[in-house]
Amino acid sequence: MNKNDIVYNLNDNVIMKKSHACGTNLWKITRTGVDVKIKCLNCNREIMMDRLEFQKKLKKVIKDEEVK
Ligand SMILES: [Zn+2]
Predict the structure, then answer these.
(1) For residue range 12-62, what is the model confidence (pLDDT) as tens digits?
(2) CB 23 within 8 A of CB 42
(3) C-alpha 56 – ligand 1 centre gap (Å)
């Protein structure tokens, strides 16, 4: 599977290549589209970046880890 074809959806938990300043590297996708917004699950800060940048920085999507 092509690394650039990682499938991600709204509310997925993701791990980025670089940790947040607070030391946590677990995020939730809170918005998808041309821009992607992710929220740090430790400090609840949200950051937004464009989709291409997000895909470049994304390391892993965590599936079925969270009960809604
Ligand atoms: Zn944080």
Answers:
(1) 999 999 999 999 999 999 999 999 999 999 999 999 999 999 999 999 999
(2) yes
(3) 19
**Beta strand 58-62 pairing with 27-31:** unpaired
User: What are the residues whose beta carbon lies below 5 Å from ligand 1 (ion)?
Assistant: 20, 22, 40, 42-43
Q: Which residues contact 25 (CB under 8 A, 6 or more apart)?
A: 15, 16, 18, 19
Q: How far is the CA of 14 from the centre of ligand 1 (A)?
A: 13
Q: How far is the CA of 1 from the centre of ligand 1 (A)?
A: 30
Q: How far is the CA of 49 from the centre of ligand 1 (A)?
A: 16
pTM, full prediction: 0.84
pLDDT of residue 29: 97
